[in-house]
Amino acid sequence: MPVIIEDLSIGEPMNHARIGYENFVSDATVTATSETTDFPANAIKNPFTYESWKPSVDPATLDIVFDSSKLINYVGLSSQDITGTINIKNGTTTIATYAATGVKETILFLLEDRNITNLKIEIIGSGTLGVVYAGSVLEMVRPFFADYAPPTLSRSNKVLSNMSEGGEFLGNSIIRKGLKDSIQWENLPAQWYRDNFDPFVEDCQTQPFFIAWNPLRYPDDVIYAQSTKMISPKLNGIMNLMDVSMTMKGLA
Predict the structure, then answer these.
(1) Interior/surface letters 195-207, b for 16+ CB within 10 angstroms, e for the rest
(2) With helix as H, strand as E and coil as C, how does the chain read?
(3) What class is the 23-136 domain?
(4) What distance lies between CA 60 and its chain's CA centroid?
(5) Which residues pair with 115 in a beta bridge?
(6) Do the bridges between strand 93-101 and strand 83-90 make them parallel or antiparallel, or are there none, so unpaired?
(7) How far apart are the first and last CA of the chain?
(8) CA 17 to CA 245: how far, in whole Å?
(9) Neighbour tally for 10: CB within 10 Å
(10) Do 197 and 209 contact (CB within 8 A), yes or no?
(11) Calpha distance 197→151 (Å, rounded)
(12) Do residues 69 and 91 touch, judged by C-beta distance below 8 A?
């Protein structure tokens, strides 16, 4: 269950999408109790997935120290293949936990609001961790249901078909994996869009983000994604409301 919900009673209903793009980790001081050569702890500050942290001793802890107190209500982990227990801690207090099975999956922890200066990620087990985000999650003010293809089921794999010279079928090879998605929200209040969604639009032009379209009913449908084209809203003619759509590709 890659979406871990600590409290159902906070903010917008949990069947509304959550988007994690604000990330205080990139500017934090990051150390670890152990690390392997070529897999340093600082790799998790990079939002891209070509580097990762690999502890050399089990258990191991990432220590993330912010330059001042930060409002944190989500932690996102991606590009990870941990086998064991992942604990999210505020100082010495464990605030969320997940039993990872070694499958490369994206994990989104939705937490109560906390002002945090010291965030710790404890790994009891083995594996690598590539991306860590922490910040204040964007809670969509409207849900959506119809005509939507869940991202974890919408694969954009590139497949190479293999056949012998005599025309015998030799099977297919997957030479590139990925996920794709397209989302549309309708009737967003125009001022809410300007205040809340547009900062995300500006950020996602260059940075990846975490998105869970319905954490309550479909907790497995969370991906770490990049926007594939510019996002532009339009007034829909109903009072002062806007519609917006976006397309993205995600990590498989």
Answers:
(1) ebbeebbebbeeb
(2) CCEEECCCCCCCCCCCCEEECCCCHHHCEEEECCCECCECHHHHHCCCCCCCECCCCCCEEEEEEEEEEEEEEEEEEEEECCEEEEEEEECCEEEEEEEEECCCCCEEEEEEEEEEEEEEEEEEEECCEEEEEEECCEECCCCCCCCCCCHHHCECCEEEEEECCCCCEEEEEEEECCEEEEEEEEEEEHHHHHHHHHHHHHHCCCCCEEEECCCCCCCCCEEEEEECCCCCCEECCCCCEEEEEEEEEECC
(3) mainly beta
(4) 22
(5) 71
(6) antiparallel
(7) 16
(8) 13
(9) 14
(10) no
(11) 20
(12) no
pLDDT digits (tens, 9 = 90+) for 158-200: 444 556 556 555 454 443 444 657 788 999 999 999 999 999 9
Q: Can you name the residues that pair with 121 across neighbouring β-strands?
A: 62, 88
Structure tokens at 226: 């990049």
Peptide bond preceding 150 in cis form (omega within 30 of 0)? no
- What torsion do the CA atoms of 14, 76, 47, 42 make, to the nearest 10 degrees? 160
- Pair of tokens at residue 15: 């069947």
> Residues in the chain with pLDDT < 50?
154-160, 170, 172-178
Residue ranges, CATH 2.60.120.260, the chain? 23-136
